[in-house]
């Protein structure tokens, strides 16, 4: 394996998708993908020469025998009803799910070490992930890459809804890119503007895929998978009638990353076929059509590998000016919400509402709920109602929580009737924790991670199941297995639940008072058990007692 | 006698039936004073639902009942209310037996013998007084608000009380076999009735005229027999529980839970706040101290009260109810039902007014302060904890007061009622 051979085996693509929304907002999605022909688990041949693939993650993969790794850090909540479906969804906070190889003997040990290593790599507090917030979903989170073994003992899923994303997380993330933040699309990732958005999410997805080179047969390549690392940043910015790349990111694009085989900017112009809604400059003749999320969209493409894209000034500053008011946005077909009902600090109810907006098709969804152990769920109170009628789930997998060891896991397959709202309710009781188990701000409340709703939604438009090299990255993230439906994952809001608190200033007082009451009991019983009743003879005063003493010495009768 | 008792039964059943059907039933079954994580009905239903889902009820931390309860309720879950109404009835049967057989006999014997000094006649109870004791005991149990609340909440504490009542019944009847089996069942349900082994043993020894002398072989012979029955039935019951779910999971879930107190849900006991505020370093030490506290009064009390095993049973039940890890008002109601049997001690009680005021006030304040803490948010946990402390303090005073009165009456029975000092003036009696 010479260096030239190795150089040909990995490739890097980057793209930026900008979707202008009707309210003047922008959805910008950066995707950076590195494909590398290698097998981290090969016996006897340790991978040591890294070129485009980040070395830190490669070492992590081989050390912990990881097959797939998906990690995301999100600030804000994606409002599906107003903004549509994101290309790659993510829940608020941090989320990490990993498929290990089936050669691993101690999955929990590997998981613990992996979370600590990732915590160091991304400067995040992923070390708070431990067995009390890790679950093993049995049906959701099937492998996104190659995988025939689906034994869920090798899957671990954890989420930290409280985790905050900031510049400290962005910097190590940018270091994973081949060009860093020096060239290509990554120059736009400046934290001052990026974190001004309503929604910001950065994710890393690593999985084994088949190499789809032209003309090569599928089956021959199965035993030599390549690894694909997909880094994406989604952000959602509020802007006004006119925006430009410079206004959004305080930078313009000057060159493509020299290591990238393709570097493109896509702007969604589907809603603007005649140019009546907005005006995009500089104009570009390149157009591309893609079917993404069940919808056929048209994009203007700016190819950064071509010099003429940058024009005279050698910099690309996309400008978009809104002309008219926006029209209707396509309603997403699947949408979910969650909230806590009830009052007081003793009990409560979790309500998850799932909307199916398809006019005539019913489809099943898989709902996964992971509730921390200190909210004791009562599964006999679980009710699922659609259109005010009982809707019994066809598959329920419930693993009850063990106090201080593992959380509740509830997975259900629910059939959603067309154009309906389905409500799932379950009652819970709040536990009183030991005083050391509360966070420093206990009255803020405790977070419950988002529910995950996964479904194959029927598509209005036929999807293509062929993979080509020219397909934009955002439309080929999730493999499409059939033409008539596409995979969607919706995350609900995380919940904030208050627990009753003891008085934190009182440990010594409580110990003293309780021990006093116990001692009162002990004392009374001790007295009654060891003493006997006697007639009370009054004792003589001191003077008479002294006189008696002298009399006893003298041998004279005593006083009484 | 039969007519008032029947009337009482009808009134008790009516009250419970009315409350079962009203909207109060749900409210009562959520009260932390009435149900605990060990015996809540909601958790029994949850355990059965988990079993239906194919998951072992002991895999989570919600269900802490013994497999015997699963067996029982699997079949009668639809008739649960009837089951819970029958159990106080069993206690009521006990009351009849307790007084009619035991106390009557003892008093008759006492009257016939001339053991007592002449002036003690007024200390002894006449059959006329004792005639109404069964009715009073039944009334104290069936109409006690604590029992009614416990029954309406469908807390399995009522069933545990019924088993203990049956055990006492069989002991007083003299059947060692049944008594041993029932005691094993009561111990299997919650560990604490283990301490009732000593009073039951003492009762049988007294009944069979075997002196309690460690050097006598007859004493050891009977003790070993009774212990064998008890331990044997315990082993059999535990073995049968294994076969229900095919695993020993229930042992850490039930007995490990009772001993290690992981769940800190507030209740009327002393454990929850103590361990919520405990430094982690000392947790194991204090768990051991508190659990030993329940068991270690057995030997000293048995030595002091070896002639009076029935009072010893009352004392043991009271100590268990106060110091156990998850007490509820149903446990309190059980030993309170015995109080009319000692109504003759009234003249020697010192603090009865204070104690009854404290207990009444605390019972009224529990729901108020709970509401203020959990729902209104204007109080905090210290308020509820304070009332817990006061309630337990009141109970301890009550029990030790009755103990004092009992010992004093025994002293008077042997030394005469009106005691005189050496110079002939009236004497006072003190503990020295």
Please tell me about this protein's structure.
- Chain B: Residues 1-25 form the signal peptide.
- Chain B: Belongs to the PIGU family.
- Chain B: One of its GO terms (biological process) is attachment of GPI anchor to protein.
- Chain B: Keywords: Endoplasmic reticulum, GPI-anchor biosynthesis, Membrane, Signal, Transmembrane, Transmembrane helix.
- Chain B: It holds the Pfam family PIG-U.
- The complex is a heterodimer of chains A (560) and B (432).
- By secondary structure, chain A is α+β, with helices and mostly antiparallel strands.
- Chain A contains nine helices and 27 strands.
- In chain A, strand 12 (287-292) and strand 13 (295-303) form a beta hairpin.
- Chain B is an all-alpha fold.
- In chain B, helix 19 (352-376) packs antiparallel against helix 20.
- The radius of gyration of chain B is 23 Å and the shape is globular.
Describe the structure concisely:
The complex is a heterodimer of chains A (560) and B (432). Chain A is α+β, with helices and mostly antiparallel strands. Chain A has helices at residues 3-8, 55-63, 80-83, 107-122, 167-175, 191-194, 245-249, 507-530, 542-554, and strands spanning 10-20, 25-36, 66-75, 93-100, 134-135, 155-160, 199-209, 226-238, 242-244, 262-268, 278-281, 287-292, 295-303, 319-322, 334-341, 347-356, 363-371, 375-386, 389-390, 395-399, 408-416, 420-430, 446-448, 452-458, 485-491, 495-497, 533-535.
Key attributes of the depicted protein:
heterodimer, A: 560 residues, alpha+beta, 5-stranded antiparallel β-sheet, 9 helices, elongated, B: 432 residues, mainly alpha, 20 helices, 69% helix, 1% strand, globular
Strand coverage percent of chain A: 25-35%
Biggest pleated-sheet summary of chain A: 11 strands, mixed
- Radius of gyration of chain A (Å): 33 Å
Query: N- to C-terminal separation of chain B?
Result: 44 Å
Number of continuous helical runs of chain B? 20
Structural class of chain A: alpha+beta
Strand count of chain B? 1
Strand residue percentage of chain B: under 5%
Q: Greatest contact pair?
A: A-B, 52 and 65 residues
> What is the residue-averaged pLDDT of chain A?
84
Secondary structure: helix percent of chain B:
55-70%
Query: Nearest-angstrom radius of gyration of chain B?
Result: 23 Å
Report, as a whole number of angstroms, the end-to-end distance of chain A.
117 Å
The structure class of chain B reads: mainly alpha
Broad shape of chain A: elongated
Approximately how much helix is present in the residues of chain A?
Answer: 10-25%
Beta-strand segment tally of chain A? 27
The multimeric state of the shown protein is heterodimer
What's the order of the H and E elements of chain B? HHHHHHHHHHHHHHHHHHHHE
In the predicted model, the low-confidence regions of chain B spanning at least 5 consecutive residues are none
SS element count, helices of chain A? 9
Pfam family, one (chain A): Gpi16
InterPro entries (chain A): PIG-T (IPR007245)
Protein name (chain A): Phosphatidylinositol glycan anchor biosynthesis, class T
Subcellular location (chain B): Endoplasmic reticulum membrane
């Amino acid at each position: 394996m010479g260096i030239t051979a190795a150089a040909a085996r990995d490739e890097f693509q980057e793209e930026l998708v900008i979707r202008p929304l009707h309210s003047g907002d922008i959805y910008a999605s950066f995707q950076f993908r590195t494909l590398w022909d290698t097998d981290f688990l090969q016996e006897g041949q340790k991978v040591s020469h890294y070129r485009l693939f980040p070395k830190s993650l490669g070492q992590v993969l081989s050390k912990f025998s990881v097959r797939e790794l998906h990690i995301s850090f999100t600030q804000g909540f994606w409002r599906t009803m107003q903004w549509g479906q994101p290309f790659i969804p993510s829940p608020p906070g941090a989320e990490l799910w990993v498929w290990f190889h089936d050669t691993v003997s101690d999955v929990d040990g590997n998981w613990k070490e992996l979370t600590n290593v990732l915590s160091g790599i991304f400067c995040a507090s992923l070390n708070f992930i431990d067995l009390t917030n890790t679950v093993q979903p049995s049906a959701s989170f099937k492998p996104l890459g190659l995988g025939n073994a689906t034994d869920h003992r090798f899957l671990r899923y954890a989420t930290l809804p409280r985790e905050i994303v900031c510049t400290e997380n962005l910097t190590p993330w940018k270091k994973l890119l081949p060009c860093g933040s020096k060239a290509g699309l990554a120059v736009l990732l400046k934290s001052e503007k990026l974190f001004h958005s309503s929604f910001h999410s950065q994710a890393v997805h690593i999985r084994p895929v088949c190499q789809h080179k032209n003309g090569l047969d599928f089956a021959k390549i199965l035993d030599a998978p390549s690894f694909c690392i997909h880094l994406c940043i989604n952000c959602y910015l509020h802007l006004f009638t006119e925006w430009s790349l410079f206004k959004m990111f305080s930078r313009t694009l000057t060159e493509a990353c020299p290591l990238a085989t393709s570097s493109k900017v896509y702007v969604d112009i589907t809603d603007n076929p005649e140019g009546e809604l907005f005006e995009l400059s500089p104009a570009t003749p390149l157009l591309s059509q893609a079917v993404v999320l069940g919808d056929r969209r048209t994009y203007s493409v700016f190819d950064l590998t071509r010099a003429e894209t940058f024009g005279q000034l050698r910099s690309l500053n996309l400008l978009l000016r809104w002309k008219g008011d926006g029209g209707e946005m396509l309603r997403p077909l699947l949408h979910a919400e969650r909230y806590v009902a009830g009052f007081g600090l003793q009990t409560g109810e979790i309500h998850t509402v799932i909307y199916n907006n398809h006019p005539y098709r019913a489809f099943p969804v898989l709902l996964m709920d992971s509730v921390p152990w200190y909210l004791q769920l009562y599964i006999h109170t679980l009710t699922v109602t659609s259109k005010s009628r009982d809707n019994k789930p066809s598959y329920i997998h419930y693993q009850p929580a063990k106090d201080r060891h593992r959380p509740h896991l509830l997975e259900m397959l629910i059939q959603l009737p067309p154009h309906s709202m389905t409500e799932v309710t379950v009652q819970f009781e709040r536990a009183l924790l030991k005083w050391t188990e509360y966070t420093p701000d206990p009255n803020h409340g405790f977070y419950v991670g988002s529910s995950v709703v996964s479904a194959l939604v029927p598509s209005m438009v036929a999807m293509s199941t062929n993979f080509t090299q020219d397909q934009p990255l955002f439309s080929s993230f999730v493999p499409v297995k059939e033409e008539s439906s596409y995979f969607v994952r919706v995350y609900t809001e995380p919940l904030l639940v208050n627990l009753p608190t003891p008085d934190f200033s009182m440990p010594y007082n409580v110990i003293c008072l309780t021990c006093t009451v116990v001692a009162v009991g002990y004392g009374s019983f001790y007295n009654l058990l060891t003493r006997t009743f006697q007639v009370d003879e009054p004792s003589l005063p001191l003077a008479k007692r002294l006189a008696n003493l002298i009399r006893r010495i003298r041998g004279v009768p005593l006083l009484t | 006698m039969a007519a008032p008792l029947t009337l009482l039964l009808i009134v008790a059943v009516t009250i419970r039936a009315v409350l079962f059907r009203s909207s109060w039933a749900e409210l009562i079954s959520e009260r932390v004073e009435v149900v605990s994580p060990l015996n809540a009905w909601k958790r029994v239903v949850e355990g059965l639902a988990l079993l239906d889902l194919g998951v072992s009820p002991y895999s989570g931390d919600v269900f802490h009942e013994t497999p015997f309860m699963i067996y029982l309720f699997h079949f009668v879950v639809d008739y649960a209310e009837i089951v819970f109404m029958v159990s106080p009835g069993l206690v009521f049967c006990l009351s009849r037996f307790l007084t009619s057989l035991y106390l009557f006999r003892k008093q008759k014997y006492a009257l016939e013998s001339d053991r007592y000094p002449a002036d003690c006649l007024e200390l002894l109870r006449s059959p006329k007084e004792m005639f109404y004791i069964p009715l009073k005991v039944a009334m104290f149990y069936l109409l006690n608000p604590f029992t009614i609340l416990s029954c309406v909440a469908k807390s399995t504490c009522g069933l545990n009380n019924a088993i203990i009542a049956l055990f006492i019944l069989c002991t007083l009847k003299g059947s060692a076999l049944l008594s041993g089996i029932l005691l094993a069942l009561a111990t299997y349900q919650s560990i604490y009735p283990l301490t009732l082994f000593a009073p039951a043993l003492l009762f049988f020894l007294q009944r069979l005229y075997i002196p309690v002398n460690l050097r006598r072989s007859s004493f050891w012979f009977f003790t070993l027999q009774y212990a064998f029955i008890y331990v044997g039935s315990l082993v059999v019951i535990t073995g049968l529980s294994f076969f229900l779910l095919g695993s020993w999971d229930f042992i850490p879930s039930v007995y490990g839970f009772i001993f290690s107190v992981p769940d800190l849900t507030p209740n009327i006991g002393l454990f929850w706040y103590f361990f919520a505020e405990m430094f982690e370093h000392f947790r194991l030490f204090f768990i051991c101290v508190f659990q030993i506290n329940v068991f270690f009064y057995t030997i000293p009390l048995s030595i002091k009260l070896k002639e009076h095993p029935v009072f010893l049973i009352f004392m043991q039940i009271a100590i268990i109810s106060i110091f156990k890890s998850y007490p509820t008002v149903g446990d309190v109601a059980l030993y309170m039902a015995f109080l009319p049997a000692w109504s003759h001690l009234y003249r020697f009680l010192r603090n009865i007014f204070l104690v009854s005021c404290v207990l009444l006030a605390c019972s009224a304040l529990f729901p108020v302060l709970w509401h203020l803490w959990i729902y209104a948010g204007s109080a905090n946990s210290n308020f509820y904890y304070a009332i817990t402390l006061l309630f337990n303090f009141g109970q301890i005073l009550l029990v030790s007061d009755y103990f004092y009165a009992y010992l004093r009456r025994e002293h008077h029975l042997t030394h005469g009622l009106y005691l005189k000092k050496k110079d002939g003036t009236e004497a006072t009696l003190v503990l020295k």
